[in-house]
Amino acid sequence: MPAAPIDALLLVSFGGPEKPDDVVPFLENVTRGRGIPRERLAEVGQHYYLFGGRSPINDQCRALKKAIEDDFAAHDLDLPVYWGNRNWDPYLADALREMRDAGVRRAACLFTSAYASYSGCRQYRENLAAALEEVGPGAPELTRLPHYFDRPGFVEPFVDGTVAALEGLPEGSRIVFVTHSVPEAMNATSGPSGGRYVAEHLDAAGVAAAAANTANTANTANTANTANTANTANTANTVAERRGTPTAWDLVYCSRSGPPSQAWLEPDVNDHLEALAAQGVPGVAVVPVGFVSDHMEVLYDLDTEAKATADRLGLAFARVPTPGVDPRFVGTVRELVVERMAAERGEAAQSSRTGRLGPVWADCPAGCCPNARGHRPAVCGAD
Ligand SMILES: CC1=C(CCC(=O)O)c2cc3nc(cc4[nH]c(cc5[nH]c(cc1n2)c(C)c5CCC(=O)O)c(CCC(=O)O)c4C)C(CCC(=O)O)=C3C
Ligand SMILES: [Fe+2]
Questions:
Q1: Ligand 1, atom 39: nearest CA belongs to which residue?
Q2: Nearest atom, ligand 1, residue 255 CA
Q3: Rounded to 5, what percent of the chain is helix, strand, coil?
Q4: d(Cα 132, Cα 42) in Å, to the nearest integer?
Q5: Which ligand is nearest to the CA of 300?
Q6: What is the C-alpha separation between 89 and 169, in angstroms, rounded?
Q7: Rounded to 5°, angle at Cα 289 from 151 and 361
Q8: Looking at the domain that runs over 8-148+325-344, which CATH code has it been given?
Q9: Which ligand is nearest to the CA of 127?
Q10: Residue nearest to atom 16 of ligand 1 (CA)
Q11: Which atom of ligand 1 is nearest to the CA of 290?
């Protein structure tokens, strides 16, 4: 039987607390069955209390939902947008009930994670299966849009931010791409054949660093360029040429959790800053390439903790914004939906992609990003 056409978009996200009393129950939701030590939980609770017990992530999802709705309307795409979270109100089951009541039959799901991993993909697929079970008959069918780490609309906002950050940093500064650490075992089993979490980040970071180094800055208000003729393809205007050499970059990690006995991806961003300072590097452009919005990991782990480390080391520090509601990123969301609808109608789909990794899949192949704690039912995949 052919699947029903896609008649809604479901934004699937992490969720966060909105007031101090939410913090403990939120953390219990996140860590249920995940074996996180109590001390780590108490510490992460403090990160939230430092910001008034409110994570910005839900407001960022509300803003993204609105931006997607406006963009769809401006492009004559008549598709309602819903939003649900793994860990906090509005929960995925709430969204599915709302969709059922509105007569939605089959929705495309966009996860607010650009990369493959158990945490960023299969865990959401398991959460959706549980939410469908909870809602029961009449809930919409679900399908998953591909991860988007290799889409120009996701990468370009990071490139612009990096170029702008380098303008204000001393010669010899470096680019530091940061993502959420995960257990080494989670990376090793990510994607259809393993190692995909790191491979996708290296791909996006490599593309972004190359684009930042070759960016033409003739149109930026930089006095060094005023003698050059603006708008001409003057090669002396690229960031790399103006700085004398391409700016070097690394991929490092933040937000390590889990028991100390478990290996997680390293180096930690703070240790990396120590190493750079010891080499005499004067400054860093910190690019949160692993994240879609400036949520708590960015505000605490980067803007607070890593910034304090940089200050202590005398490193100049500039943090680049995440895509957020950048129109290019919002346009990418539309392209993912439109491409998918075209493909399902049997039309050749045009896809704009950067990077050197092989094709990105929609619904997941069997064994993709397995759950280390045992198989649980999941939707949007072959198993
Ligand atoms: C890969 C990845 C992403 C990116 C992809 C995606 O976006 O999904 C991500 C995002 C996020 N992680 C977030 C918050 C937390 N993550 C935790 C714990 C963990 N994250 C993990 C991985 C990831 N996490 C893992 C392997 C754990 C260990 C426990 C487990 O195996 O599940 C914990 C528990 C405390 C702690 O141990 O740190 C918290 C509070 C927030 C919300 C921020 C806000 O409130 O603004 C967001 C967007
Ligand atoms: Fe996390």
A1: 30
A2: 38
A3: 45, 15, 45
A4: 32
A5: 1
A6: 41
A7: 40
A8: 3.40.50.1400
A9: 1
A10: 30
A11: 4
Span 19-34, mean pLDDT?
93
Model confidence at 206: pLDDT above 80: yes
* Domain chopping of the chain, boundaries: 8-148+325-344, 152-319
Does the Cβ of 257 fall within 6 Å of ligand 1? Answer: yes
CB of 165 closer than 8 Å to CB of 318: yes
For 152-319, the fitting CATH number among 3.30.470.20, 3.40.47.10, 3.30.450.40, 3.40.50.1400 is 3.40.50.1400
In the chain, the amino acid numbered 196 is R
The pLDDT tens digits for 310-361 are 999 999 999 999 999 999 999 999 999 999 999 999 998 778 888 888 778 8
Q: Quick: pLDDT tens for 36-62.
A: 888 888 999 999 999 999 999 999 999
Q: Is 180 in the pocket of ligand 1 (CB under 6 A)?
A: yes
Q: Could you give the 3-state DSSP secondary structure of residue 150?
A: coil
**Separation CA 284–CA 316 (nearest Å):** 6
Ligand nearest to the CA of 149: 1
Q: Does ligand 1 come within 6 angstroms of the Cβ of 30? A: yes
pTM equals: 0.94
Which of the listed residues 41, 128, 255 should we mutate to test ligand 1's pocket, taking the one with most ligand atoms within 8 A of CB? 255
Q: Are 344 and 5 in contact (CB under 8 A)?
A: yes
Tell me what ipTM this predicted complex has.
Answer: 0.95
Q: Could you tell me which of 161, 197, 162, 166 has the C-alpha nearest to residue 182? A: 197
